[in-house]
Design goal:
By secondary structure, the protein is of the alpha+beta class. It is built from 22 helices and nine strands.
Length: about 675
Amino acid sequence: MRLLSSLRSSLEHDVTPGVDAETKTRQSNRRRLQVFATVFLIVLIPGLLWNFLRPAEYRATARVQITPGSTEPRPGASPLLPGSSEVPRSSSELLTQVQVLTSRPLLEKVGEALAKAGQPLPGGDAASRLREMISAEAVEGTGVVELQATGFQPAQLAAALNSLVDIYREDMKASFGAAAGEGLAQARQEAERLAATVQARRQRLDTFRNTTGVLSPEREENEAVARIKGLSASLNTATEKAAVAEARLKAMQSGGRGSAPGADDPTLANMEARASQIAEEIRQMERTYTPEFMRMDPRAKSLQSRLVEMERQIETQRAASRQAALGAAQDEVASARATIERLQAEIRAQRSTMQNFSQRFTQAKALEDDLAQIEKASRDAMERYALLEASDRSRQPGLKLLESASVPRRPFRPDYLADAAIVLGLAFGLGLLAMWFVELFHRQPPAKAPAATTTVIVPPQWGLPQQGQGGGVLPGAEPPVLSASAPAALGVLPAQAPIPRELSQSEASALLAAAGEARFMAALLLMGLTADEVTALRQQDLDAAAGALHIGGHARRTLAVPGAVLASAPAASADPAAPLLKDASGAALSTADIESMVACAALDAGLSAAATVTADALRHTCIAWLVRQGLRFSDLAGMVGRPSAEALAFYAELAPDGPKRGAAEVEWPMPALRETGV
């Protein structure tokens, strides 16, 4: 309400008469400052409350590598023969395993495991809560699956991911064991069934061969084919001979050319030769003698008579020869026809025999092929069974844990500092905008007449120059006249934040001696740590062997810890993420606990103004000790963090004149921390 009242009053129009320009300027500046501060605080305070009151979300991460076995333990799958290459698992199979990792049955088991471990999930449906918390994503091009869990309880996130990986591994082993046992049983049954089938088929083939006599089918088939080929050749020859004999017989019967039988009859040929000789003698005599002589010559008559008789005998012999040749031709044709019929009958009989043999051979061949297929299937089944039995372990799918989930130390979101910076910038911008808006509607017209003023006489001050020397006031002259608003112009500067108390080395030693169990904590504050940094320390941050302390946060640094300080450190814990400084319940110390412990130590030590001894005072003592030695301000951040600009302006007054020194050139730590009693 005060902020709103201040803003409302700043918007009121000031019409005080008689106010000079300087006073108006001061009033305007004061009004701008009030408007800016009011809007800035109205926006900044709720914004920071909203920012820092939001619960922090954490994210735990785990990575696993899923690799397939050498063979798939699926019943009825084709066996992997020796020498065959394994088919790599495709991306789809890996995505299937990703879905299995986030399946509801698996998440229900994880919820039960968390409940047994004393970390139950709020709400009734644990699987739904885990599905909202956990996500799984396959890394492209690899068999790696990245698991992430997001929530408000860091320890529960890590436990959920680790339980998920363990339960998934156990389920994978159980599923593979059941599938592998079923596959071996089915492979053994299949091999036994095929072996019995082979025995039955082999016995059937032997029985068929003994019954049909098909012992050597290849040789018998070749002999039958050769006989048929020989008979076919003989049939062709007999057919050609029959055709020739029939043609000759037809020629003889028709009496055509080539039907004269004298060519093969020597008697007929002799008679024709004698007749030709007689006819030649008669032709010679006719060339020599006249026809009348020839009719009267006894020799000529005798030759003609002999020629006539010889021609008659030739004709008779020719007729007899023709008749004999015709009978021989008829016999030849009949013999050729008989041969053809006999060969055809033999060929038909041989072909029938060969057809019957071919049928028996086809049946035997079918039985042999069937037996060969069954024998091959039996061998494959035996090989598959032997391979499955021998490579049971190699076929088991692998799950390799690349990175187990650890308890996250830092929030995943929100980013308080970044959001606070945004709120700060927004408040600053809105403040400037409000200031401009007020000034836009708060402009005053120029005064038309000088306003009445109230004067104040200011006595002259000592040491002011004279008028002739600098324009000052001469002795006896009237003092200057100031407006009534002058006191306001001479207002008090805004107060700065009080500087913490600096302890002397003797006071620091007395404080450490009286701190008791809080001695290590007080020593850390005297080494330049803030209370927030002390509360954030974990067991892993203190390296006692190396004598080093690692400070995280926005001012990351590593400090050398003196041996006297290490001697007062608490006992190490087995959990590296456990708090370094804990209370009686085992929880990390809070800033309130630290302030209380420092106040108690100051009271026990009997320090003067013990109420002013705070955690900031101890840190301020450390910084002042370093600055008084001439430490470069640029090296100050690496030892105690980066102080604010106002603090640096104060510390600059403590630094000695001249060139500054590096961190290795100053004395560290302060003498109070090097004492044996620390």
